[in-house]
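Fold this sequence, please.
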Amino acid sequence: MSGCEVEYDEQESRTTERAYQTPEITAQRVATLQALSLRTGESVLDIGVGPGLLSYDMAQLVGEKGRIVGIDNASAMVAIAQNRCGGFAQVEIALGDAQHLEFTDADFDAAVCVQVLLYIPEVRKALVEMHRVLNPGGRVVIIETDWRGLVLNSSFPELTEKMIASWDAAVSSPQLPPVLEQMLKRVGFSGVSVMAVPVLANSYVKGNYAHTMLNQLSEYAVKQNRVTKSQAQEWLGDLSRKQSDGAFFFCVNRFLFKAFRR
C-alpha cells in the first residue's frame, strides 16, 4: 500500500496522548531514554514527537544548555507537544517531514524515532536523512512494532487475524522490525543492536493502550470490509467479557534499535 489511512486529527491525537501515558508505554519511554544515554548539553532530534512526552523527559536530561527539536507532520500533535514542553527554553516543536529533514548536516548528537517509520512510504529516505543530520559518532534510537506477534486471549482467532491484517493495510510500511537492522547498515549506520520491548496488559479498560489499539484495529477492519460491523462488535464484546472474567491478556513486542553514525 502506497498511502496511509491513519490520520492524527485533534480527537485521535488526544486518544493517543492518553494511551501513551499508561504504565506499559511509560516503561517503553524509560527503555528509550536508557538507550539514548543523554548527557547534559547534547542536542537531540525527536522525529515524530507526538504528544511530546519523550521530548519533555529528554529536556530535563540535556538541561538548559542542551537542545531538543521535535517534529511531527500532524498539526494537532505539534500543538499538544508545544503545550506540554512550553516551559523549556531548550525545546523547539514544529511541523516536519521525516523524509525531508530541514536541518544542516551533522546538526545533532542523537535522534529518536518512535513508531513513526511504519507511516512513511520511503523508509530508506528517512534513514538516510537521520544519518545525515547526526554528528559523526552520533546515535539513533528507533522503535517499531510487528503486529504479527500479537498474543491475545480471544475466542475468535480468525477475526483477530483479520484485525491484524487491517492494520498492516492501513499503514505505509508495516512489518519493519525483521528488515530494519539491514536497512540501517545499508545507509551507513554501524554498531546496530536490537532488543524487544514488550507491551503487556492484562486489563481492557477505556483509555489504556490495549483498548485503544484493539478498537482502532476493529475500525480499520470494518472500513476495509475485512469484517462486518457486527463481527467487530462480537470480537470487542468478547474482549470486554474477558476483562470482566479476569481473563484478558494482551502482549505485543516492540523492537528498539540503536545504531551509530560512523
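The chain has a mean pLDDT of 95. The domain at 10-261 is CATH 3.40.50.150 (Rossmann fold).
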